From TrEMBL:
PROSITE patterns per record: ABC_TRANSPORTER_1, ABC_TRANSPORTER_2
KW Isomerase (keyword) present: no
Keywords: ATP-binding, Nucleotide-binding, Transport
Alphabetized Gene3D superfamilies for the sequence: P-loop containing nucleotide triphosphate hydrolases
Organism: Polaribacter cellanae
Domain of life per record: Bacteria
Pfam (any one): ABC_tran
Protein name (database record): ABC transporter ATP-binding protein
Positions of the ABC transporter domain: 2-235
InterPro entries the UniProt entry points to: AAA+_ATPase (IPR003593), ABC_SmlMolc_Importer (IPR050093), ABC_transporter-like_ATP-bd (IPR003439), ABC_transporter-like_CS (IPR017871), P-loop_NTPase (IPR027417)
GO molecular function: ATP binding; ATP hydrolysis activity
Length: 312
């Protein structure tokens, strides 16, 4: 459905931001774009929406070519919706009115029903008559998502969609929103720093590094076989450690404290994480991080077991 072919883009000459990007997205499919700050996630979303002119390459949605502002006077494609980081809502009208602005005036009943449905998705029923200027940043973000969904788009582009929303609300909203998109078969591309957006909800992940696509695969495949530390570090406090002359990438849950082993380590720090502790230790002049149910005192000597079978 979406076909991104050989896309290259730069804001200034000879300084590429995206170099030769190729990928596809099917109807209803959900893609997460990840990578370090400044790698070009937002830029990619803007290009797909048609806000920027590419240097090279083409983008098609079905048989329609996505054109940039040079060739398309009103920027943005009709069948896409884009929620930017600086969502521009109308501050002096209510939450409901902001959503309704994007629905047909000719079918008031249908429009009211749809507004109610979307207020439920974003858990903002209680604020339906509140003026947007009186909302918090996170609440505005949720209204911006509902507004983008008002006229069911075929593809929704979300830039850090839950960045301003607290954890409690975020988890519930995520489950509700992504289930809603699947139910309506709306394709979605999310630019995010948050592994929780990616691991549980994306069909595919696309990881950008040094202006290129470094990985493009299912979340499970990318998480379990990260090509390099950069990729694994997007998900957890990954360890890159040399054991018997061989370097391994290991997530903290792949290192265990055991009664006996040849791998001796000394505890150097411990961080309370709620349901577990993240323990820092020194092993063979290297820093290692692992998870443990209970705390360990600094300077304690321990024996470690590295579950290298799980890593490459
Ligand atoms: N309008 C612009 N003009 C020139 N350079 C820009 C412009 N917008 C972004 N850039 C640069 O392009 C690169 C990619 O920026 P982009 O905002 O796409 O990154 P990002 O991955 O979304 O970052 P973040 O995760 O911090 O939001 C950065 O180096 C940024 O400084």
């Amino acid at each position: 459905m979406l076909k991104v072919q050989n896309i290259s883009f730069s804001y200034t000459k000879n300084k590429p931001v995206l170099n030769d990007f190729n990928f596809t997205l099917k109807k209803g499919e959900h893609l997460c774009v990840m990578g370090e700050s400044g790698c070009g996630k937002s830029t990619l979303l803007k290009i797909i929406y048609g806000l920027l002119d590419v240097d090279k390459g083409t983008i098609f949605w079905k048989e329609n070519e996505v054109l940039g502002p040079k060739e398309h006077l009103v920027p943005g494609m009709d069948f896409f919706k884009y929620v930017a980081q600086d969502f521009d809502l109308m501050p002096y009208i209510s939450v409901s009115e902001n959503i309704k602005k994007h629905l047909s005036r000719f079918y008031p009943e249908e429009s009211e029903k749809r507004t109610q449905e979307l207020l439920e998705v974003i858990e903002m029923k209680a604020f339906k008559n509140t003026k947007v200027k009186n909302l918090s940043g996170g609440q505005k973000q949720r209204v911006a998502i509902a507004r983008a969904l008002a006229k069911e788009p075929e593809l929704l582009l979300l830039d850090e969609p839950f960045g301003q929303i607290d954890n409690f609300k975020k988890n519930a909203l995520r489950r509700r929103l992504f289930a809603y998109l699947k139910e309506k078969n709306i394709a979605c591309i999310v630019a995010t720093h948050d592994k929780n957006d990616a691991l549980s909800f994306a069909d595919k992940l696309l990881i950008i590094r040094n202006h290129k696509i470094l990985a493009y695969n299912s979340p499970k495949e990318i998480y379990n076989s990260p090509k390099e530390k950069y990729v694994a570090a997007l998900f957890d406090d990954v360890n890159e450690i040399t054991i018997n002359g061989k370097t391994h990438l290991l997530y903290p849950h792949q290192i265990k404290v055991v009664e006996k082993s040849k791998e001796k380590a000394t505890i150097t720090n411990a961080y309370f994480k709620g349901s577990y502790w993240l323990i820092e230790a020194e092993f063979d002049n290297q820093k290692v991080f692992f998870n443990r149910k209970t705390n360990l005192e600094v300077k304690t000597q321990i024996n470690l077991l590295f579950d290298v079978n799980l890593s490459k």
